[in-house]
What does this fold into?
Amino acid sequence: MLEERQYGPVVGFRAARSFLGRGYYFTAAYWVDGLLVDSGCSFTDGELLRALPPDRRPVTTIVNTHCHEDHIGANGLLQQRLGSRIHAHPLALPVLDNPHLQPLQPYRRVFWGWPRPSRGEPANEWIETEHHRLRVIPTPGHSPDHIALYEPQRGWLFSGDAYIGGRDKAARGDYDVRSIIRSLRTLAALDITALFPGSGTVRQNHPADEILRKADQMEELGAQIHALHASGCDSTEIRNRLFGRETSLYFVTLGHFSGIHLVEIYLRAAPDSSGPASTPVRFSGGGGAG
Ligand SMILES: [Zn+2]
It folds into this structure.
């Protein structure tokens, strides 16, 4: 299913595979002035194509914020039908070309599916549309190939998955938490009027403050985790104390997202500044894809 909503000249799409009329694990794409930022999941590629008629909403350019399957899903169909040029981080290009280079756990195949191949080119520092110039900002952490797009005249930030709202209770094992926090601080320093994130929940009420709060919150969580670790707690004890039991996400993703991973990505990262030096921590399996 595909929902659309207008934010001034920007059209926001929320896309999800639906089961019995209900969508699960929405992802987002945004269209403005001939530019499409991300393309949703493969299951909604036909709906997205129909929502982008060339006379009203041409798609000259697609920019992928990163190569996760829920952001590149309609690339292949749109490029084939509309002739769009696709830009992404150089690290994303081999996956665009051959999506099977990125292993998909069962839940990812069920909710977002395998994208069709597409051909991309490296994103330069600026993306130009007829009326706008958007700066490409490297924002690694969620994935090494992550970029965000910022339109300084209008204060629009298309942040992909660099910013995920709410308090974390689970994570993938391959997140680089130090880089996530650094990227959040980079984004929070921008003058932002509207935040268009990968979840599709658009923020227009002091978005930079919200991004900064998330960075601070993650920093605090890291300090708590390192303090508990220094006092002798192992990952399971730390998880139990800070988050309680695993959430439904753990079961849906068969452990690809877990509270234990969330603890361990912090333990793998050096604690901030003067804290005790972290020794390499055993990393339990199950993560590492994508
Ligand atoms: Zn992602």
User: Anything to note?
Assistant: The first helix runs from residue 45 to 50. The pocket of zinc ion is lined by residues 66, 68, 142-143, 161 (CB under 6 Å).
